[in-house]
Design brief:
The chain is 34% helix and 14% strand. The protein is α/β, with parallel strands linked by helices and 561 residues long. It folds into 3 domains: 52 residues, no CATH class; 205 residues, 3-Layer(aba) Sandwich (Rossmann fold), CATH 3.40.50; 226 residues, Rossmann fold. A 9-stranded mixed beta sheet has the order 4-3-5-13-18-17-14-16-15, sandwiched between helices. Helix 5 crosses helix 6 and helix 8 runs parallel beside helix 10. The radius of gyration is 33 Å and the shape is elongated. 40% of the residues are buried.
């Protein structure tokens, strides 16, 4: 009897051992049961229990198997395109996202306060702006093809020499594409990234044409204004006029400025010594001059609308339509030449202006507009490092103070952008108490206070300028090495313009952009920017082509070969 019991125990023990071994071997095959029940003939079921650690190990193996192909590593040897606080979210320059692959964003959880202190950077992946990379001659596949000079445009030699004296020798990509078309008399819409040389792209052919006309035997010294450049701010008007004077000086052409925020007497004073050859004006001042009959545009040869995305905005569109109604704009190439001619239209911007078709279709045939669109239009600049920091609103002032102290030690000039004039003033008072030397620039300041502020900044009389987006449009900021978005911009267009204040053509170094991200709506914009950076595509929701009013038929965009 006792030996029978021993035999039965040995038999059960062998069965249990076999089951245990089978249980362990089935772990990698995805065993999920916590218990196994063994039933033998003539006996009660035997329960085999799996230890908790073994259960956890099984679950971990199953999770690893399920996630094996969910996320491919985005980090390869070499430079990083995206550098995050969490290294697992880094992305290498050499990694390309698949068409249907969803990028894993650093900013995905930034709407939660748990993300405070998180950050990521979009690193620069090239040393020079795309607009100044070497030009290749047509049909030349050599990487060592020589850069072209301004002599290739067949403009007057004195103009080329004037450019050389200012160390302007090689045209940028945008200038190569735009100048020949304007010289031929075409109406142009030029949309290209900030800092790519658009101002010179339209001023150079204008000055070349005006000096040539002045040499004609029938030229009248008392002629009316021949070129008008419309810009959104008086600071930009002064800057464009300064560039125009510098390249037209050898030819004795008159350049005048009519800026906004001034009385009629100040505007009239600009025309007391006769009509200028080139007038640079803000829309409000130009309308006052037209209403008071200080000027007329009957003999206009060129009408330039600079910073077009701003000029076609609702705040300016009404005034712009009124100005265009006083101007005869050419609708075909034959109308831009001869004794009796119409004005050649040039529209320029760093982003493609929305609503441009609605306005221009009233004054010209949209089919006459040649489109010059940069390859990098609406893209993040690949030569500028851009950092995004998730921070509490109350902590922004302390973060900014640290950044400005570091910039002072490194002798960097800084632009600090705010979304409102009141924030500019408050931030200025706060920085004064902290001992930070600075100046302020915002649209609600009186004209006398604004006058000369940006010029003093350009000259290096101070290194920190706190401003609104009034300083983000077109102003030459070659000495700026750091942009701080104290308030994150309200849309992608403003972000592109602000970031474009650094890394401009002719800068010795590219500079950086630092953005404080505070609100949930800021996070939504940042997520779109990060997605575009990881995919290396243009920013979403931007205009990409000129459109006619919806009730009219679409036109075929002309191609100039």
């Amino acid at each position: 009897m006792q030996s029978a019991k021993v035999g039965r125990c040995a038999f059960l023990f062998s069965k249990v051992s076999k089951v245990a071994r089978a249980s362990c071997s089935s772990q990698l095959a995805g065993v999920s049961a916590c218990e196994r029940r063994l039933t033998t003939a003539g006996s009660q079921p035997v329960v085999i229990r799996i230890p908790r650690r073994m259960q956890e190990r099984i679950e971990n193996i199953k999770q690893m198997q399920s996630k094996k192909f969910d996320k491919l590593p985005t980090v390869k040897p070499g430079r990083l395109l995206i550098k995050s606080k969490n290294p697992q979210l880094n992305q290498s320059v050499g990694y390309t996202l698949g068409k249907f692959e969803q990028p894993v964003l650093t900013s995905k959880g930034w709407k939660s306060n748990k993300a405070l202190g998180d950050y990521f950077s979009i690193n620069s992946i090239q040393s020079a702006p795309p607009s100044v990379l070497k030009q290749k001659d047509e049909g030349d596949n050599s990487a060592s093809a020589p850069q072209k000079t301004f002599n290739c445009f067949n403009i007057c030699p004195e103009l080329v020499e004037t450019l050389h004296s200012q160390n302007i020798i090689h045209p940028t990509t945008v200038q190569m594409q735009t100048i020949p078309k304007i010289l031929k008399g075409r109406n142009i819409l030029c949309a290209a990234e900030t800092g790519s040389g658009k101002t010179l792209a339209y001023l150079l052919p204008i000055i070349n044409r005006l000096q040539a006309d002045s040499q004609e035997p029938f030229a009248d010294s008392e002629r009316n204004i021949r070129a008008v450049v419309i810009v959104p701010s008086r600071e930009l008007a002064e800057q464009v006029a300064s560039v125009s004077r510098s390249i037209s000086k050898p030819f004795g052409l008159k350049v005048k400025v009519a800026g906004g925020g001034r009385g009629v007497g100040k505007i009239k004073a600009a025309f007391t010594q006769g009509q200028p050859d080139v007038l640079v004006a803000t829309p409000g001042a130009l309308l006052k001059a037209l209403w008071k009959r200080f000027i007329n545009l009957n003999e206009l040869s060129f009408l330039v609308i600079d910073e077009a995305d701003t000029m076609f905005d609702k705040s300016f569109a009404g005034m712009l339509e009124n100005i265009l109604s006083h101007t005869e704009v050419a609708s075909r190439l034959s109308e831009t030449a001869g004794l009796v001619h119409k004005a050649q239209l040039v529209v320029v911007g760093a982003t493609f202006p929305g609503g441009v078709g609605e306005v221009l279709s009233n004054v010209t045939d949209l089919a006459s507009m040649l489109i010059v669109k940069s390859r990098m239009l609406h893209h993040l600049m690949p030569h500028v490092k851009q950092t995004f920091l998730r921070v509490k609103g109350a902590d922004k002032i302390l973060e900014l103070h640290q950044v400005l102290k570091k910039a002072e030690m490194e002798h960097k000039s800084v632009l600090v952008f705010c979304n409102s004039a009141s924030t500019v003033n408050w931030l200025g008072y706060s920085l004064e108490e902290m001992g930070v030397r600075h100046m302020r620039l915002q649209g609600e300041m009186p004209a006398t206070m604004r006058e000369g502020t940006f010029t003093n900044f350009q000259k290096g009389n101070f290194d920190v300028l706190i401003c609104t987006d009034i300083a983000s449009r077109g102003l030459d900021t070659q000495r700026v090495k750091l942009i701080v978005n104290y308030d994150f911009p309200e849309n992608h267009t403003d972000y592109i313009h602000r970031a474009g204040r650094v890394g401009r053509a002719g800068c010795s170094e590219a500079g950086e952009v630092l953005s404080f991200v505070t609100h949930s709506w800021d996070v939504e914009l940042v997520q779109k920017i990060e997605t575009a950076a990881r995919r290396r595509t243009s920013l979403p929701g931007m205009e990409s082509e000129i459109q006619k009013p919806s009730q009219e038929t679409d036109f075929k965009e002309m191609q100039d070969n």
